[in-house]
Each structure stands twice: as structure tokens, then as C-alpha cells.
Specification:
mainly alpha, 4 helices, about 60% helix, elongated
Length: about 140
């Protein structure tokens, strides 16, 4: 399936995106690379969500009340359903993060930490384009 190269909204000028002191401004090619990566991730997650929605619907429909089933089968079905629901939730969260990153690129706020407002850093964003926090704020969040 071919991916459309058109973007929903034109991104802000690359030079307007935040960079850390000592970093070069974003280039159009770098922004295009990040946008392409986000679109690829979005396509992948959307396929997973679509597939899991179908699987979870089937698991929910077939779950019944367990009457006539071995306890191990009921437990296994419950475990599988819980696992699928967890993965589905994580993929839906990832889709929301991707959409948020694409929106931030479009409105020119991409690259700013949502907690402290300082630049996140190009290297971090190139490695993890959905990042919304600088390393300092992310470490602080993880310690809580």
C-alpha cells in the first residue's frame, strides 16, 4: 500500500522549531524524515489496532460465562483477552502520541519540552520522534 506524501497540514518552517544550544537548526530534509517516520509508525499502529479490535471483539463474543469449560481454558482465555486489551490500549496511546507530534510539527511547537519549555534536542527527537519531554524532565517523571 503506497503511503501518501501529502501532509494534512503544512509543517512550520524548520528553522522555527526548537533546538538545543549548539545544535544546528532543523533542515527541511530532517523534518521530512521525522514526518515520514511518524507516518510510518502511524500506519503500523493503525494496522495493529484494526487487527486487535477484530480479535478482541471475537474474544469478548466467545468468552461466555465459562460454563462447561475447563478452568484452565477459562483462565487462558481471560489472560489472552487481557493481554490483547493491554496491547490495544498501548497502540491507541501510541497513535495519539503520533498525532500530537504531527500537530506540534504543523504548529511550530515541536521540539519544546511540554513540562519546562526548553528544547528537547534534535538527536532525541530523531531517535524518538514522539518525545514530548526533554531528558531532564523525562528522568524526573520516571523517578516518581
Amino acid at each position: 500500500m503506497a503511503r501518501s506524501t501529502k501532509k494534512a497540514a503544512e509543517p512550520a518552517k524548520p528553522s522555527s522549531l526548537a533546538v538545543k544550544e549548539g545544535e544546528e537548526d532543523w533542515t527541511a530534509a530532517e523534518v521530512d524524515e521525522v514526518v515520514a517516520e511518524l507516518h510510518d509508525q502511524r500506519e503500523h499502529s493503525a494496522r495493529i489496532v484494526e487487527s486487535l479490535d477484530t480479535e478482541v471483539s471475537g474474544l469478548m463474543r466467545d468468552s461466555g460465562d465459562g460454563a462447561g469449560q475447563d478452568q484452565a481454558d477459562v483462565g487462558s482465555s481471560s489472560f489472552e483477552r487481557d493481554h490483547e486489551l493491554t496491547v490495544l490500549g498501548l497502540e491507541r496511546d501510541k497513535l495519539a502520541q503520533i498525532d500530537r507530534a504531527l500537530g506540534r510539527i504543523a504548529d511550530g511547537t515541536y521540539g519544546r519540552c511540554e513540562s519546562c519549555g526548553e528544547p528537547i534536542g534534535k538527536m532525541r527527537l530523531m531517535a524518538f520522534p514522539r518525545a514530548t519531554l526533554c531528558m531532564t524532565c523525562k528522568q524526573r517523571e520516571e523517578r516518581r
